Automatic annotation (TrEMBL):
Keywords: Signal. It comes from Niastella koreensis. The keyword Signal applies. Pfam families: Peptidase_M28. The keyword Membrane does not apply. PANTHER family: METALLOPEPTIDASE M28 FAMILY MEMBER (PTHR12147), PEPTIDASE M28 DOMAIN-CONTAINING PROTEIN (PTHR12147:SF26). InterPro entries: M28_fam, Peptidase_M28. This is Peptidase M28. Residues 1-20 form the signal peptide. Residues 260-468 form the Peptidase M28 domain.
Amino acid sequence: MRNFAALLAVTLLGAYISVAQTKKAPVEAIKQADLKRDLFTLADDHFRGREAGTLDELKASVWVAEEARKAGLEPAGDDGTYFQFFSLNRERVSDRSTVKIGDRSFNLWKDVVVYEPAFATVNAPIVFIENPDTVAEATIQGKVVALQFTPQGLTDPRKSIPWRYNAFVISAWARKLAAKGVKAILFVSDDLAEQAFPRATQYSNRGSYQIEGSMFPSRRLLKDIPIIWVRKEALDLVRKPGQHLDAAIYTELFTYPSVNVVAKVKGTDAMLSKEYVLFSGHQDHDGVRNIEGATDSIFNGADDNATVSVALLAIGRAFHQQPGKRSALFVWHGSEERGLFGSTWFAEHPTVPRESLVAVLNGDMIGMNNPDSAALLGVVPPHLNSGDLVKIALQENAKGPKFKLDTTWDKASHHELWYFRSDHLPYARKNIPAIFFSTLPHPLYHTPGDEAATINIEKLTKMTRWMYATGFSVANAANRPRLEPGFKLER
């Protein structure tokens, strides 16, 4: 009996120690070797850049689902599967479209970009202007307005990522000019825009995408007023007095499948397990694009967003090893690059009751830039929608990675509008507490150079552990994070 009592005491002591050790997230379960292995697989040329609406996206999604199954995660998609399919509708400028200025015909996607789909026939005089903010409506109404790219009147977009410069200029001026009754808008490259022209051909020729019920009723800037972009060498031709634009723009329509991958780890508490902490990322990227002058055609998207895709797998393994009181839900969203479509679809058609979602922890690009810095968005009003959730995330950062946090990209005044460009947004719009982990853009962002070999695996591991520890704390908290009273986004 004495020996039995001693054995029982040792057993109970061991159990006590084990329980005591489980009160905090066992971040050691997030292993650097696992992240590296999975990252080099998902960001490999085998998946051809995982472009949304292609077989490559579906192939990558099947790989994610199989890895989730191996990790012990249960299926949480439709009909007992790991998948939630939705239809992706595409409008593309047809190759039958023609553009002619004076006597010169322009080759589509080589000499000229039609910026977005439209149905339009234009035969009208060209009026070249210097400043669209000051031009009189009577001067351009019923005509084709032409202008050269310039940052005049804007918060200098040249400080932004260079290839996004053209998008800022077009977005800033297209609607203003359309409101003055123009027939078409003709942009001519300046030196900086000319650098982006080869890339623009490979993006604009994809067209515009949409899903049923999207929070973006239209991804287009204008409705059937063509936005045409020609190269710098055409400047003298466009400025020549008495010049005409003769254009016929046609649009083709297609429907493709896209998919969310959804998995879960059930919580341990009889009541709280009916609630979910949602870990969010996206598995798609930009696919194969033959950009003039580039040495590689596959956009592997290692940072954007294979890093978070493999982070969710690692977090899933950790939760399977030690579940929280609340359940953990993992959603790899499809078609994020097309317009946050997978997350928009899931937020509108969740596979669990929407009211059971207590928090969304979204990640996008978590493996680059300075090793000791990161960003947490959803912290600065009006983007702050749950002070409780932010407090937990900041506490976990203070315990572990101790990143220096950059809050400038979270401000409503930031020209990149970074808060509005990832998968937490549809959930925040549904008044679900949501935060966004990121290490922010870098020179390789949306280029063929975003390869697995460029990722800081140690930083990726720290970011993954931070997301995991935050979610584990939420999963075991007595109360779910509260929504800020009167929360409302600025746009």
